[in-house]
From TrEMBL:
The lineage of its organism: Bacteria, Pseudomonadati, Bacteroidota, Bacteroidia, Bacteroidales. It comes from Alistipes hominis. It holds the Pfam family DUF2461. It comes from the Bacteria. This is DUF2461 domain-containing protein.
Length: 225
């Protein structure tokens, strides 16, 4: 992991095609190391959440090349490696576990991250999640509380209760969410520990009840399509 972090630090400083091409062999080496880590994480997470069993590395990982067509940021490469572990792979729309390696840059930009939940769910899925929260709010709240060390990200939310839901619900702050995920930032010391795979799996295990609730809502949404 140390070499992966070092590569990403250098890529942040030299985010251009000339540097990347000159260091293509280094990239291929660290990408292979990261893929090996992802393969081990699939097995470790599947040990407590069988819904991710059988995933291939390519089902979970992302390209390093950025799509700059509609972005003011024209840097060609991402400065992180990420992997998303969920039923049927990263494009399935299911809630899952996200592992993000990104050295912290100037101005506290970036940072290694463990996350679990749904990011930018489809409208019908979000409606189903809100129904689940409305019907089983205490169970949802307990799942959030039970994910020790994680916090619920509330950056992307409505100002008022969504249409069709009461503003006086004790769970209205949950109902306002547009993204529904837990997050935990970790440091280099965490990433460089010898038993990283086991530590990441242990952290994610605490979020499994939260993931299970969300994926039940996803399944309901799929049944109604």
């Amino acid at each position: 992991m140390e070499d992966i972090i070092r590569f990403l630090e250098q890529l942040r400083r030299h985010n251009n095609r000339e540097w990347f091409e000159a260091n293509k062999l280094w990239y291929r080496d660290v990408k292979a190391r990261f893929d090996g880590l992802v393969a081990r994480l699939i097995d470790a997470i599947a040990a407590f959440d069988p819904s991710v069993a059988g995933l291939a590395v390519k089902d979970c990982t992302y390209r390093i090349y950025r799509d700059t067509r509609f972005s003011p940021n024209k840097e060609p490469y991402k400065t992180h490696f990420g992997a998303y572990f969920c039923p049927r792979g990263k494009k399935s729309g299911y809630a899952g576990y996200y592992f993000h390696v990104e050295p912290q840059g100037d101005g506290l930009i970036g940072g290694h991250l463990l996350s679990a939940g749904l990011y930018m769910p489809e409208p019908n899925v979000l409606k189903s999640v809100r129904d689940e929260i409305f019907d089983n709010g205490e169970r949802f709240a307990a799942a959030v509380r039970g994910a020790s060390g994680f916090s619920l990200n509330a950056e992307n939310r409505l100002k008022r209760a969504p249409a069709g839901f009461p503003s006086d619900s004790p769970y209205v702050e949950y109902l306002k969410l547009k993204d529904v995920y837990l997050e935990k930032f970790v440091d280099d010391r965490f990433m460089l520990q010898a038993d990283l795979v086991e530590s990441v799996a242990r952290e994610f295990r605490a979020t499994m009840p939260f993931i299970a609730l969300l994926n039940r809502a996803v399944d309901y949404a799929r049944e109604e399509m």
